[in-house]
Amino acid sequence: MKVAPRQANAFLASIPATVRALLLHGSDLGLISERARKVATVFSDDLDDVFSVTRLEGDQLAGDTGALGDAAEALAMTAPCRLVLVKGRGSELLAACKIALARQLDSAFIIVEATDTTTRHALVKLFETAENAAALGCYGDDARDIGALLRETMARDGISVSDDAAALVVERLGSDRAISRQEIEKLALLAGPGGTLGVEDVSHALGDSASLAVTDIALAAADGNVEALQKAVGKAWTEQQASVMVLRSCQGYFKQMLAAARAVQRGSQAMQAVKSLRPPLHFRLQDRVIAQLRFWQADAILDAVNRLQDAELAVKTGAADDETQCAQTLLGICIRGRALKR
Predict the structure, then answer these.
(1) What is the SS3 assignment for the chain?
(2) Class in CATH terms, 143-205
(3) Per-residue pLDDT tens for 18-36?
(4) Which fold has domain 210-341?
């Protein structure tokens, strides 16, 4: 069974009885982990119970392809169901999963976390086509997902969030569910039960997040400053920033530039266009964007956004080395900016 992203929540809330094995795959490792744990707790009250829960690694299964099937058919001594938790990359799991899905799984449930696959991978196709299994892709949250996570967390503590603040949270988060949840929980702690969150609160609280850390990359690319870009990108890799986060944050910056450029085309002054952006642009960036709008026209900015989106897709699907793809895309945009500036 193939579970479409829009069906994920409904599927996870009520997994069909015929499904006895679930593959979680994709680029959002935080979301894979969160969903794996959520499903696991449905089948076991104690994930540390060695008498009913078995944990296997991909390297183990590569050397013993029958181990997964054997574990699934083992009697659960303290629970009605044997839960088998598997973590691996992807290809090394294929043979073991083929054998396991052919076994008797009525009294077992298998959860496989594969962190290095694409939708075209043989392992994904195996779970999508098997009658007793399902595959669910886990990719970076979109605006709707982040908004829902924010509302859910804030409603729990009765916290009010302004529209601009919520929009800023959505803009800065989203490439990894675990990071997003951590940052939103930090905001809830900042506000306190029954408190409020405004745009300044969010900007300050997320000031050390990955999204702000790559602001210098977006600034350098838009300025056409190759030396500054190389330094900022090098710093991002040193700090182990995710390339998808870098690309997405740069998209957010260029999309705001695009909105301001289109406002200028309609007759607004650059300063007015920049100050009217929603969510509001940080005050320290406003003068830089106004200066960049003198040489970046809307068509050129749109092309930059499209290139960043194409690069993000290539990284997510495993079509290219992520850091190389990210750096090359940003360098191309930077060189374009330098040419426009002359």
Answers:
(1) CEECHHHHHHHHHCCCCCCCEEEEECCCHHHHHHHHHHHHHHHCCCCCCCCCEEEEEHHHHHHCCCHHHHHHHCCCCCCCCEEEEEEECCHHHHHHHHHHHCCCCCCEEEEEEECCCCCCCHHHHHHHHCCCEEEEECCCCCHHHHHHHHHHHHHHCCCEECHHHHHHHHHHCCCCHHHHHHHHHHHHHHHCCCCEECHHHHHHHCCCCHHHHCHHHHHHHHHCCHHHHHHHHHHHHHCCCCHHHHHHHHHHHHHHHHHHHHHHHCCCCHHHHHHCCCCCCCHHHHHHHHHHCCCCCHHHHHHHHHHHHHHHHHHHCCCCCHHHHHHHHHHHHHHHHHHHHC
(2) mainly alpha
(3) 999 999 998 778 889 999 9
(4) Zinc Finger, Delta Prime; domain 3 (1.20.272)
